[in-house]
Amino acid sequence: CGSCLRDEALALGLTREGHEVNVTPLYLPLVLEQESQPENHAPVRLGGINMYLQQKLSWAGSLPGFLRDLLDRPGLLRWASRRGNMTDSPDLGPLTLSTLRGEAGPLNSLIEQLVSGLAGDKIPDVIMLSNAMLVGLVRGVKAGLPGVRVVCTLQGEEPFLDRLPQPYRDQAWEELRSRCTDVDRFIAVSHWYGARMAGRLDLGSDQMKVVTNGIEVEELGALERRSPAVPTVGFMARMCEDKGMHTLVAAFESLVASGEHPDLRLKLGGALQPEDRGPLAKLRRHLAKTGLSERVDIHPNVTRSEKSAFLASLSVLSVPATYGESFGLYVLEALAAGVPVVQPDHGGLTELVRDTQGGLLYDPEDPAALAKTLGSFLRDDEALTQAGERGRAAVLGRYTASR
Q1: pLDDT exceeds 70 at position 87
Q2: What is the pTM of this model?
């Protein structure tokens, strides 16, 4: 998940600067690309199974500590997450609202347990929450850890909350607004998203700062950039409709049908959640029906080394997200590898592509615009090379985890 990768990169960057950093996963174990668990990762707190039980059953709050610990075991949480829909907001209205209500809701005993675990041997100076869906924890944390400051990143909350069914949608936004004063500082990952969330949460300019995301660039930056023998368009993000995978397939079909790119190939890769398997299976059937299966490679749940090889094989990357992305780490990853991008002209993507000069933007309201933009880019080898070089220089200079 992009949030996991971003938080891990930030922890590594801070550690290199001499800070002592602990990463505490909430709900589920972090899903990272490396196989070994980093030493600075604490046990899972607020485990998803315990949260679900306390939301559904009034007596679950009195479960003994050893049983709560058992339900927070990483293997059990991973097993549960593979068998349930953990991220689709229309099904999570009541639990979202309970989480935002924090100590005033049914999850109070779990928050007390979280605070006890965070105290440990040394009370932290700062606690950084990875997104604003967690602000319900702040009052309990500050009550249990006097003097601690709480910073909260703003990234990706809006589309999740806006997909909640009523009345949970309005109630969740109201609860979130009411708790923003508990947070010492918000950090938005792009100017566009910061301005948008400042308006929706009634935040003043003194409450928020913009700090763009960064990535670990060593491996991708060391890749030797060569144009692939066969022109190849790639997609590397969560493999779901929201990220526009189906939109890219439609553009690919249009490019093939034009006859101007007879050897063109498409590569689709990224994280595949349980709820994404049905749409992907449908997409595979569609490609088989159109006779394009042999020209499309699909790589779900790639490792870090597999991702590097994947990116190195592309002419251009496009993730035509259907909503306003707060940032887009996949753009940084592609550009770090020297691969130019074609992205929709909306949200934080506009800001990122313009600042790096690593690709082209297209009008997402025009159904034919993506295919036209990709087609013109693929016909101009010099433009592809120059965009990739500009983007790579920008990311290696300004979008690193340390920066």
Answers
A1: no
A2: 0.89
pLDDT tens per residue, range 316-333 = 999 999 988 999 999 999
Which pLDDT value is given to residue 113? 84
Q: Helices 329-336 and 304-312 meet at what angle, rounded to 10? A: 60
* CB of 266 closer than 8 Å to CB of 245: no
Q: How many CB atoms lie within 10 A of CB 366?
A: 11
Q: Which two tokens stand for residue 333?
A: 């990853």
Q: What is the mean pLDDT of residues 56-78?
A: 83
Radius of gyration of the chain (CA): 22
Which residue is listed with tokens 């990234």?
155
Q: Using CA atoms, how far apart are residues 312 and 220, in angstroms rounded to an integer?
A: 9
Distance CA(131)–CA(87), nearest Å, equals: 14
Q: In what order do the strands lie in the sheet with 126-129?
A: 126-129, 149-154, 185-188, 208-210
The three-state DSSP-derived secondary structure of the chain is CHHHHHHHHHHHHHHHCCCCCCECCECCCCCCCCCCCCCCECCCECCHHHHHHHHHCHHHHHCCHHHHHHHCCHHHHHHHHHHCCCCCHHHCHHHHHHHHHHHHCCCHHHHHHHHHHHHCCCCCCEEEECCHHHHHHHHHHHHHCCCCEEEEEECCHHHHHHCCCCCHHHHHHHHHHHHHHHCCEEEECCHHHHHHHHHHHCCCHHHEEECCCCECCHHHHCCCCCCCCCCEEEEECCCCHHHCHHHHHHHHHHHHHHCCCCCCEEEEEECCCHHHHHHHHHHHHHHHHHCCHHHEEEEECCCHHHHHHHHHCCCEECCCCCCCCCCCHHHHHHHHCCCCEEEECCHHHHHHHHHHCCEEEECCCCCCHHHHHHHHHHCCHHHHHHHHHHHHHHHHHHCECCC
If 0-12 CB within 10 Å is exposed, 13-18 middle and 19+ buried, where does residue 358 land?
Answer: buried
The confidence band for 37, taking pLDDT boundaries of 50, 70 and 90, is low
Residue 39: pLDDT above 80? no
Q: Residue 112: exposed, middle, or buried by beta-carbon count in 10 A (0-12, 13-18, 19+)?
A: middle
- Mean per-residue pLDDT of the chain: 90
Distance CA 113, CA 239 (A): 35
